[in-house]
């Protein structure tokens, strides 16, 4: 037999080529379906090729008649090749086959089965080499007992990690709370569980600690989406009826789409306590859908609560102390008040409805404006509403006007900014709102109520005729925007419309 035949005959067996073909096929499948495991796949295939090259070296030694060295080298690299094949099969079964049939065992389970297969393969090769497995097992049992005693804490952590995953106590992605530490589980390892907190801290919990002590899994409930109940507390004076506070807060929150706040269960406001200091303690309860931005979501809800109460003229209650001060700043306070009134008069002059008012009437109106803030996303007016008999003037922020078609499709009409006003038809005629207005950003408004305008009209009824002209023009402009009509078509029969609106105003305000 030639040197080459001697070497190749020692290397290649009947299973070598099928084994190589199998490795290539598994590698292609993993590369196609599990690109995220590419690094592990490359390392495993590289190790398998190194083992094949090692067998080539053993064949070379055998051809050179270094028989003992050739046998040892061959056996070592056969075991190594088997380990690589077992690893590839583990990746294939646990990361492609089982997920395809909707079975997702924990990663530790994969590691255990792969390690058992490694040990079994190693024992088979030792038995094939002629070693007595009985004596090996007896010796291994004694060594295992000594190692287990010396490493009982480590083994406790390993078994704890296995138990945590097998019974699904926690999973990667869960939010847990241990004592005063809350965070997201990012990895469950053999020895420990890694938790990332909101403060960019990574806390390492030994698995045995989680097994021995209680911990909370936040936001998880059987057959329910992940969401966690939060409380936002605030105080209001006892003089305000609780039913009014609850309805105002719930209406404001329920009508607004707020990020990370669940629609079901719906947020609700409850009266928690009545303090002897003169205020009632309320809490808005809501369910948080993303557990990371907890404080920012609480802050957003506090702003919605505060703006809703301010619009209703309700002040948040704070603890008060009686302090006697010398009144030296009365002139300054009066100056600030006068400046505020002048600013309001300047704002009113931009509103066409009040262009016919004299200085005295504008001053009286300015003093009775109501400050009305809206948080981003609040519905300021709703299409079809018949109870909103007031007008808003925007002093800061932007709002969007939109209409809902009978088909259910929503259409944006225009964007309102500083100095714009809306709601004039509802204020002057009591007509239902023809469009909805939503706060595009945080918006500050002045609100004018019906009773204020009613006093003006009764004092000087001639104002009604001028207002009717402005209302007709504004209505025609809105029709153009909403229906894409040309200006001529939108303004026909203006005289008749003015007469109808003037009659409606007089009837609405009981003018003679």
How would you characterize this protein structure?
The protein is α+β, with helices and mostly antiparallel strands. The protein folds into four domains: 3-150; 169-218, SH3 type barrels (Roll), CATH 2.30.30; 228-311, Alpha-Beta Plaits, CATH 3.30.70; 331-508, Sandwich (Jelly Rolls), CATH 2.60.120. It has 17 helices and 16 strands. It has helices spanning 3-11, 16-33, 38-63, 67-100, 107-128, 133-150, 152-166, 207-212, 242-254, 294-311, 330-349, 359-367, 424-429, 450-459, 463-483, 487-490, 494-508, and strands at residues 175-178, 181-188, 192-197, 202-206, 216-218, 228-237, 268-274, 279-288, 370-374, 379-381, 390-396, 399-404, 410-416, 421-422, 436-439, 443-449. Strands 4-3-2-1-5 form a five-stranded antiparallel beta sheet.
């Amino acid at each position: 037999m030639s040197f080459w035949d001697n070497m190749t005959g020692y290397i290649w067996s009947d299973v070598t080529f099928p084994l190589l073909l199998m490795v290539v096929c598994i590698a292609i499948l993993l590369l196609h379906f599990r690109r995220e495991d590419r690094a592990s796949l490359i390392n495993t295939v590289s190790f398998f090729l190194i083992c094949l090259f090692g067998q080539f070296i053993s064949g070379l030694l055998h051809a050179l008649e270094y028989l003992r060295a050739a046998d040892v080298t061959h056996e070592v690299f056969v075991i190594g090749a088997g380990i690589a094949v077992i690893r590839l099969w583990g990746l294939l079964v646990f990361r492609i086959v089982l997920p395809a049939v909707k079975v997702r065992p924990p990663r530790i389970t994969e590691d255990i089965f792969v390690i058992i297969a490694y040990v079994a393969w190693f024992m088979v090769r030792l038995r094939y080499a002629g070693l007595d497995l009985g004596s090996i097992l007896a010796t291994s049992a004694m060594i295992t007992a000594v190692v287990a005693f010396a490493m009982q804490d480590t083994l406790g952590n390993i078994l704890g990690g296995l138990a945590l995953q097998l019974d699904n106590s926690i999973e990667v992605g869960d939010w847990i709370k241990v004592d005063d530490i809350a965070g997201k589980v990012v990895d469950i390892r053999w020895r420990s569980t890694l938790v990332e907190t909101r403060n960019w801290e990574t806390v390492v919990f030994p698995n045995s600690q989680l097994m021995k002590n209680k911990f909370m899994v936040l936001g998880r409930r059987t057959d329910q989406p992940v969401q966690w109940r939060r409380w936002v507390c605030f105080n209001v004076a006892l003089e305000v009826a609780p039913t009014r506070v609850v309805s105002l807060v719930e209406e404001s929150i329920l009508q607004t789409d707020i990020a990370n706040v669940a629609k079901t269960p719906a947020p609700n406001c409850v009266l928690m306590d009545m303090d002897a200091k003169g205020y009632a303690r309320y809490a808005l309860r809501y369910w948080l859908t993303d557990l990371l931005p907890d404080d920012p979501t609480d802050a957003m809800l506090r702003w919605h609560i505060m703006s809703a109460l301010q619009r209703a003229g309700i002040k948040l209650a704070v603890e008060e102390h009686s302090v006697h001060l010398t009144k030296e700043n009365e002139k300054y306070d009066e100056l600030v008040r006068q400046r505020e009134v002048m600013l309001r008069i300047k704002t009113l002059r931009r509103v066409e409805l009040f262009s016919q008012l004299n200085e005295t009437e504008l001053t009286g109106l300015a003093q009775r404006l109501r400050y009305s803030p809206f948080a981003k996303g609040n519905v300021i007016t709703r299409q079809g509403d018949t109870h909103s008999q007031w007008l808003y003037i925007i002093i800061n922020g932007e709002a969007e006007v939109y209409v809902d078609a009978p088909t259910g499709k929503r259409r944006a009409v225009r964007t309102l900014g500083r100095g714009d006003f809306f709601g004039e038809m509802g204020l002057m005629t009591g007509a239902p709102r023809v469009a909805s207005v939503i706060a595009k950003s945080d918006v500050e408004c002045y609100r004018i109520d019906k009773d204020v305008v009613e006093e003006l009209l009764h004092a000087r009824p001639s104002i009604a005729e001028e207002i009717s002209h402005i209302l007709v023009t504004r209505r025609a402009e809105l029709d153009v925007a909403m229906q894409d009509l040309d200006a001529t078509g939108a303004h026909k029969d203006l005289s008749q419309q003015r007469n109808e609106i003037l009659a409606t105003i007089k009837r609405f305000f009981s003018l003679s």
